[in-house]
Design brief:
single chain; about 40% helix
Length: about 450
């Protein structure tokens, strides 16, 4: 069996020379055909991803440009238990010997493990190999390019979204408990962590949970660390991480959260009409692709006020600026569809008109500063957020995002920490034991590290 790529084997893959020049419980393959314009060398475009988000963006904003004789082969493998990365890694390792129509052309990566693929020969140079220019990329937010830039300064991937984030709250609960549902007024009650704690106590007294569970605000703390998870080969615990542990234990003991794990049914149910959760932290993709759907009593009904709690929500900046996630499109070395890859990347991540349309139709914060300024100052209204133009609140935050403290270990570290601390929050183990369990799990995953 071929060795699977992990953060600690990425370096080994960098020495593998074989080139001459982004839901469900099982793998799914979907084919798409469409009509006219971009030139493609191959007749099959293989795209590897982990859910249907990029597929929907592709179908809605690019599919009409696809040449009629090109078939898109979607290879969708869920993220659970690292299944997507394992599937992708096996295919990349077999890329040299694969038939032309079986080679990966595009694959998607998330922020937590993007660095794993950046410094390898498996990703094409966006400028030199694919052909996008500095001018094409000029409106993209700097941090989205920094994340995908290798140690030699080569850009290896692009994204259609930037992910500045904030606090999404239930309007009716805010009116009842805080006296107003206006974002500017609600922000005064959550503008720092001390005020956030005071508001959590008020929500508890009124019969509501400030947050759904343990992990809801983890990304706020984690995105504001001053040092990466790993310095040299030593595991580093930033004070912001310890503050999250302290706060979450307090919220659990005081009943300020509903003890739900992120992505669990319990977490989503807290947003329904009869749910008791006041707020969630997240960016545009979380609002559109997750929370909005959770709120609807009839998932097949209209996305409109009256369907569950849809429309009874609003957005404010919250106690700290942060970003969460993001998806990047990478061109795979060995692809025979370079011209098509270039056109897809340009249309979905550089074209101002497409970026503006995507943002207004989905609520996503597009990776184009000029487009976002236009939308933020225009007549855009998000019906899920009660008609609010929340994008205007995110412009300054997006420009200030700094990802210099990211590491190739982020996904594994984050997941092991959340898993270990859940036992502490639930009273199953002491805090010291939870930390011991965290270190044990991390060192098993990354044996090259030290405590």
């Amino acid at each position: 069996m071929k060795k699977i790529l992990t953060a600690v084997t990425a370096a080994a893959l960098c020495t593998t020379v074989f080139f001459t020049a982004c839901n469900g419980n099982k793998d799914t393959t979907v084919s798409t055909n469409a009509g006219s314009s971009a030139k493609a060398e191959g007749k099959v475009l293989n795209i590897y991803c982990w859910n249907e988000e990029f597929q929907s963006r592709f179908n809605d904003y690019y599919k009409s440009k696809l040449p009629a004789d090109v078939r898109v082969n979607w290879v969708i493998t869920p993220n659970q238990d690292n299944a997507y990365q394992n599937k992708l890694d096996e295919a990349l390792l077999a890329q040299e010997s694969a038939a032309a129509d079986d080679k990966i052309d595009l694959f998607l990566v998330e922020a937590d493990y993007a660095l794993k693929y950046v410094d390898t020969p498996y990703t094409l140079d966006v400028k030199k190999d694919i052909g996008l220019s500095e001018s094409d990329l000029s409106n993209q937010y700097k941090y989205t390019k920094d994340i995908m830039t290798d140690s030699k300064g080569v850009l290896k991937g692009v994204s259609w979204q930037a992910c500045p984030s904030g606090f999404i709250y239930r309007r009716s609960f805010a009116k009842q408990v805080l006296g107003s549902d206006d974002p500017a007024e609600v922000q005064k009650f959550v503008s720092d962590w001390s005020k956030f704690d005071e508001t959590a106590a008020k929500m508890k007294a009124a019969g509501y949970f400030m947050l759904s569970g343990f992990d809801d605000d983890f990304r706020v703390f984690q995105d504001n660390v001053k040092s990466p998870w790993v310095v040299g080969n030593k595991i580093t615990i930033d004070p912001a991480i310890r503050n999250w542990v302290k706060q979450t234990k307090e919220y659990t003991d005081k009943g300020y959260n509903n003890k739900a794990n992120l992505w669990s049914a319990e977490s989503g149910n807290g947003a329904k009409k009869n749910g008791k959760v006041f707020g969630y932290f997240g960016p545009g993709w979380f609002i559109d692709f997750c929370l909005a759907g959770w709120t609807m009593d009839d998932p097949n009904g209209p996305a409109a006020a009256g369907n569950g709690s849809y429309g009874d929500w609003a957005f404010c900046q919250g106690p700290q600026g942060f970003s969460w996630g993001g998806t990047w499109i990478c061109g795979a070395a060995g692809s025979d569809n370079i011209s098509l890859i270039k056109d897809i990347m340009y249309t979905l991540t550089c074209d101002k008109a497409t970026m503006s349309k995507l943002s207004q139709e989905t609520g996503d914060f597009a990776n184009n500063e000029a487009a976002m300024k236009e939308v933020a100052s225009g007549s855009y209204k998000n019906e899920f957020l009660g008609g609010q133009n929340h994008l205007a609140l995110l412009l300054e935050n997006a420009k200030s995002i700094d990802k210099s403290n990211m590491s190739a270990y982020d996904q594994g570290m984050n997941e092991k920490l959340q898993s270990a601390m859940a036992d502490y929050y639930n009273g199953k183990v002491s805090e010291d034991k939870a930390w011991d369990n965290f270190y044990t799990a991390v060192l098993e995953l990354y044996p090259n590290l030290t405590k």
